[in-house]
Amino acid sequence: MPARIDGRKTDQLRPITIEANIAPYATGSVLIGFGHTRVICAATIEPKVPSWMRQQGVPGGWLTAEYSMLPYSTLDRKARDISKGKLDGRTVEIQRLIGRSLRAIIDLQKLGENTLWIDCDVLQADGGTRTASITGAYLAARLAVQKLIDAKKIAENPLNDSVAAVSVGLFNNEQLLDLNYVEDKDAEVDFNVVMTGRGQFVEVQGTGEESTFSQEQLDGLLTLGRKGLQELAAQQSAFLAQQLLKT
After folding, report:
1. What is the reported pTM?
2. Which member of 65, 88, 100, 126 has the lowest number of beta carbons within 10 Å of its beta carbon?
3. In this structure, which topology does domain 16-245 adopt according to CATH?
C-alpha cells in the first residue's frame, strides 16, 4: 500500500492517544489525540433535566453536547463564537452530531433525572476533530457514569454500547482511512462514519467535493471505515478496562 504524506498506509489510523482525568472538575474527562488533532472531552452530570422534559412529563434523563475550537487550535487564530455573537453553522452541526451519536447508545430512562453534558474542546486541529470528539466523548461519558454507579445515584450503566467515529475519503484517487488536514482539505470525496462497538452504523456523512463517487467506491470506503472503527472500539475497550480497574 502506498505511503501517505505522514508515512501511513492507506488503511492505517493515526496514532491514538488517550489521557484520563484531564479536567478534574468534570465528572469524567479525557484528552484524546488522533495524530496531531487533540480534543478535551469532558462529561458533567447535572442533577436535573431540561424544563421541556418536566413540562411534558418525559421520564428519565437527557444528554446534550457542546463543541468548540479554541482560538489557537489552528494555524490562523479562530475567533471565538461569542465574539461573533452566535454559533457558526459548522459548530452547531458538529455538536448536534456528537449529541446524536451518544444518545444512540444510552438508555435515558436508566440515567435517572440527570442531564449528562458533553463538552468537546479542540486544542489542536489537524483534521478529524468531530470524529476524535465523538470517540473521546464516549470515554468521558463512561467514566462519568461509573462515578454515578459507584455513588449509588443510579442502579446500572445506562450506556448499552460504545460508539466511535472516523473519517475516510478519496485523495488522489486512493481510498484513505482517518484523513489528516492536508488530505481532508484536498480530498475528492470525504466521509465521516459513526459506528457502535457492536458494528451498527449510527450515522454516515459523505459528499463528493466537486466530484462524484461510484457504488464500488462507496462500498470500499464504508469497509475501510468499519475496519478503522473496529480498531478504535478495541482501543476504547482496553483504555476503559484499565481505568475502571482503578475505581
Report:
1. 0.94
2. 88
3. Ribosomal Protein S5; domain 2 (3.30.230)
